Amino acid sequence: MSKEKVKELFHKNIMLIGFMGTGKSTVSSYLKNWLDMEEVDLDAMIVKKTSMSIPDIFEKYGEAHFRDLETETLLDVQKREQLIVSCGGGIVLREENVEAMKANGKIVLLTATPKTVYERVKDSKNRPILNGNMNVEYIEQLMEKRRECYLKCADIIIATDGKSVKQIGEELVQKLLA
Ligand code: S3P
């Protein structure tokens, strides 16, 4: 499948969602290079807009304020098209976000087991949601709590455990165009 073909067939934004550590950013930058599409990362946009890190925003203004910034940023991004959008793990928590994603995007859910997620995020200091709870059990509980929200809005689901980013990218494009 040529990248021209993908672009020709696919005008909406590709919304990458999923729990922390499921590989959204990695897959996003792979797709950007492979398909020659523009990539945006909502968290990075928030950091740029506020000149603050995500942990600092949580600490100083609280999670609700971060969620407001997240929605605001998503709504701006959804005015554009043909983007690869890497979303924060909590994007599905607001119905308003889900509606905005659906209106102008195909929603791709990346999944991984709690153990895999733990291995990928255990050294991260950038995930306030896991502060003080960096262990497999907590990740499993939170994932379970969010599972329904993720599944409800996904157009496509890709399990990432044991797959290379190339395999994930190819599976994604195949499912997108199916
Ligand atoms: C969050 C996930 C993070 C970031 C914020 C909250 C969450 O993004 O948006 O720390 O609630 O799951 P990543 O999924 O890219 O780590």
Describe this structure in words.
It is a single chain. The protein is α/β, with parallel strands linked by helices. It has a single domain, classed as P-loop containing nucleotide triphosphate hydrolases (Rossmann fold, 3-Layer(aba) Sandwich). 56% of the residues lie in helices and 13% in strands. The protein contains 9 helices and 5 strands. Strands 2-3-1-4-5 form a 5-stranded parallel β-sheet, with helices on both faces. The two termini are 12 Å apart. The mean pLDDT is 95. The structure holds shikimate-3-phosphate.
Write the layout of secondary structure elements.
Elements: H1 3-9, E1 13-17, H2 24-35, E2 38-41, H3 42-50, H4 54-61, H5 63-77, E3 83-86, H6 95-103, E4 105-111, H7 114-121, H8 136-153, E5 156-159, H9 165-177
Parallel strand pairs: 1-3, 1-4, 2-3, 4-5
The protein binds shikimate-3-phosphate.
Task: Give a summary of the structure in a few sentences.
With 178 residues, the protein is of the alpha/beta class.
Strand sequence of the main sheet, in spatial order? 2-3-1-4-5
Number of domains: 1
**Ligands (ions, cofactors included):** shikimate-3-phosphate
Largest sheet: 5 strands, parallel
Helix/strand class: alpha/beta
Order of helices and strands: HEHEHHHEHEHHEH
CATH C-level class? Alpha Beta
The number of helices is: 9
Spans of 5+ residues with little confidence (pLDDT < 50)? none
Bin the strand percentage: 5-15%
Number of strands: 5
The CATH topology is given as Rossmann fold
